[in-house]
Amino acid sequence: MVESNRSLTQTIVQDLGLAIVCGTYSAGNPFPIEAELCKHYQVSRSILREAVKMLTSKGLLNARPRQGTWVEPEQSWNLLDPDVLRWLLERKFSLNLLAEFTEVRLAIEPQAAALAAERGSEAQVAQIQRAIERMEAAEVGDDDPLLADIAFHVAVLEASGNRFYARLQDLIDTALRISIRLTNQFKGVAVASVADHRKVLDGILARDPERARAASCALISEAMELIQKVQSESGKTGKGESEKTGP
């Protein structure tokens, strides 16, 4: 029963969260009353309240004494929450959002690679090597190229030995599912360059922080250049931001 309730709560969170981000419930307006939502989802008040509590923790809702629950403006949303980021990407495929996320990656991943070279354990470095092997297998159709690529970037974060970086793995996973498909599409390839990723691994294996940092920076900078190129071309054609939910 507990597991069933948890599943129901998550379903409601996903449904209402996406609805808020997509504008079904507008910022600055009152959220539907509890009784109305309970009737709609056919759930108890306790399950609905837990879902609202979770959405409040993500910055989407705000419970006001004697005023009910209100929808918060976008600037209050927690963009570091994987669910919020995914809802934003599903709402509107945004090159600007991807560019901002890639800027965050440029600030974090090269340093994580340098730290991995400096203090990554043998087991952690082996995990990065396995991710490279998965990427090689994906080139011949023996693994999922997207999941293999994500596994590489997550393994580098974990090998950094920095607990804050490691906690970003869910966020990185969420956004990379869109970003990697996009950049590969721009390059006209189905899988990422294993050689470019291997340069990061080589720096880590050599225990050379600056080499690993430079290779990681070059890898992500290429993605940024592709995004900026498409942004420029979109501006010239007047297309602007695409309304697609993904590439």
TrEMBL record:
Ranges for domain HTH gntR-type: 6-74
Keyword Transcription regulation found: yes
Keyword check for Lipid metabolism: no
Gene Ontology terms for molecular function: DNA binding; DNA-binding transcription factor activity
Key words of the record: DNA-binding, Transcription, Transcription regulation
Alphabetical list of SMART domains matching this protein: FCD (SM00895), HTH_GNTR (SM00345)
PROSITE patterns the UniProt entry points to: HTH_GNTR
CDD domains named in the record: WHTH_GntR (cd07377)
InterPro entries: GntR_C (IPR011711), TF_FadR/GntR_C (IPR008920), Tscrpt_reg_HTH_GntR (IPR000524), WH-like_DNA-bd_sf (IPR036388), WH_DNA-bd_sf (IPR036390)
PANTHER family: GNTR FAMILY REGULATORY PROTEIN, TRANSCRIPTIONAL REGULATOR, GNTR FAMILY
Name this polypeptide is given: FadR family transcriptional regulator
